[in-house]
Write a structure and sequence with these properties.
- There is one protein chain.
- The protein has about 325 residues and is mostly helical.
- It has one domain: Rhopdopsin 7-helix transmembrane proteins.
- Helix content is about 70%, strand content about 0%.
- It has 11 helices and 2 strands.
- A two-stranded antiparallel sheet has the order 1-2.
- Helix 2 (about 25-55) packs across helix 11 and helix 3 (about 65-85) packs antiparallel against helix 10.
- The radius of gyration is 23 Å and the shape is globular.
- The relative contact order is 0.14.
Length: about 325
Amino acid sequence: MEMFEETQLCFPQLLNFSCRKPIRPHSVSILIYITLSSISLLTVTLNLLVIISISHFKKLHTPTNLLLLSLAVSDCLVGLLILFQIMIIDGCWFLGEFMCSMYFLLDYIITSASVGTMVLISIDRYVAICYPLHYSTKVTPKRTKACVYLCWICSSVDQCLLLKDNLVQPGRYNSCYGECVVVVGHAFGVADLLLSIIGPVTVIVVLYLNVFVVAMTQARALRSHIAALTHERSVSTNVKKSEMKAVRTISVLIIVFLICLCPYYCVTLSGQDAMLSASSVAFVMCLFYLNSCLNPLIYALFYPWFRKSVKQIVTLKILKSGSCDTNIMYTE
């Protein structure tokens, strides 16, 4: 009986100081391992394809695609974070208290940067639809890169301040050896919620309401206007259809993102001190991980250039000299 009790401890040699493993059927643990491992592999692979595509082909170096590249980088990092989640399925953290704090810090930074990137994508579409004549001068690749760098820097600084106590004294909130817990003060948690989710979501919703109002107004104007020059009207209509397709794609991307991310923030602020332990957030983390896997599938469904670039990568045509100049945006 004593041996049985010891096998339920994360560190049997520490006896009363060790955390206990949760009792779970072996078949369930295997199923979780396989599911998370599959999601991790698929997430990293698909997002690497996005990263390689946009980075390699010069024709894809547009402001919107640079923002999608930033999102793909964060999604790829999420896929790697799943490996840490797999390690603590049994409720035990074996990498030490410092690595526990770093795990949560990286998780928070990636989440914050993802939300910030979504805001930038919304602003990009807002300018493209509402101010099309000024888009090419206002939104340039250079300015977009600067905004992406600033987004990641601000996210890193903000989350370092949020988890400062946990980084200065790792493991201070652990109740036993083998536990991985960080605690965020309620005031800081509320501030982070306002800055990292409520504020950005409000901005996204307001921008997209304006986009849809302008798009509907333009659509009605096109339908009611009978131009003498049929060809010019056709060209204008095709341009508007292209822009509206881009809006629909980004809208699906953002809606899926919010559905997957909102539960994560709800759990973050659960409890009086917003306590968040690695073993207690498996569901919301898996939902967040699933979103990172879904994003490239959305690209594949809506973006022909992504399907064409993947074909170039899989067939190793990108290794040919001058392949980076391939017009991947052509229409068949």
